Amino acid sequence: MNQTPVQPSLLQRLIDAIDYFSDLTGRSVAWLTLLMVLLTFIIVVLRYGFDSGWIALQESVTWLHATVFMLGASYALKRDSHVRVDIFYQNFSPRGRALVDLAGSLLLLLPVCLFIFQASWSYVLEAWTIGENSAETGGLPALYLLKSLLLIMPALLILQALAHSLRAWLILRNGEET
Question: Distance between CA 18 and CA 28 in Å, rounded?
Fold first, then answer.
C-alpha cells in the first residue's frame, strides 16, 4: 500500500517556526553566560590583583545578565522551564494540561506581556530619543539598547505564547499531543 506522508498543517508549521526561533534565540544568548563568567573573572583579577577596574567592564556584566534573562525567557517558556505549581498539573490528562496551558497563556501570560510592552514603550522611546548613555563616567554608551530589551522580551514571549496556545488548542481539538 502506497501511503503519502502526512503534511503538517499550517498551524503546526507556524508552531514549529516559532519554536525554532525561540530555540535559536535561547541557545544563542546562552553563550553570553560564558562571556559573563569570563568578564567577571577579569574584573575580580583586576580589582584584587591590580587594584584597578573599569566601570564599562562592570556594566557589561550587568548588560549581559539582563540580555540572557530577557531574551532567554521565551526559550524557557518553550522548554516548559518556568516555575509553576505542578501539584495538580502533573496529574492532569494531556487535554487537561492543554486546557490549563491555553487558559494560562490567554488569561495571564499575554495580558502581562502586553502590559509590560505598553508600559515600557514611552520609557524606551525616551531613551532612544535622547540617545541615553550610562550615568557613570566611563560607563557604557547606548543605554537605550539595553532598555530596548523591555520591548523585545514581551514580544518574544508573546510569540512563544502564541505557539504554546496553538499547540494546546490543537491538543484540545485533536485529542493528541503535537
Answer: 15
Q: What does pTM read for this prediction?
A: 0.85
Helix 55-78 vs helix 10-44: angle between axes, to the nearest 10 degrees? 150
Q: Which three cell numbers stand for residue 108?
A: 495571564
Kindly report the length of the chain: 178
Judge whether residue 178 has pLDDT over 80.
no
Q: What are phi and psi of 32, to 5 degrees?
A: -65, -25
Judged against a pLDDT cut of 70, whether residue 44 lies above it is answered with: yes
Is 139:58 a contact under the CB 8 Å cutoff?
no
> Is residue 113 a contact partner of residue 158, using CB atoms and an 8 Å limit?
yes
- Type of residue numbered 163: A
Choice between 111 and 86, residue whose per-residue pLDDT is larger: 111
Contacting residues for 54 by C-beta, under 8 A, at least 6 apart: 46, 138
Give the residue ranges of DSSP H helices in 45-109. 50, 55-78, 94-104
CA atoms within 13 A on the CB side of 107: 6
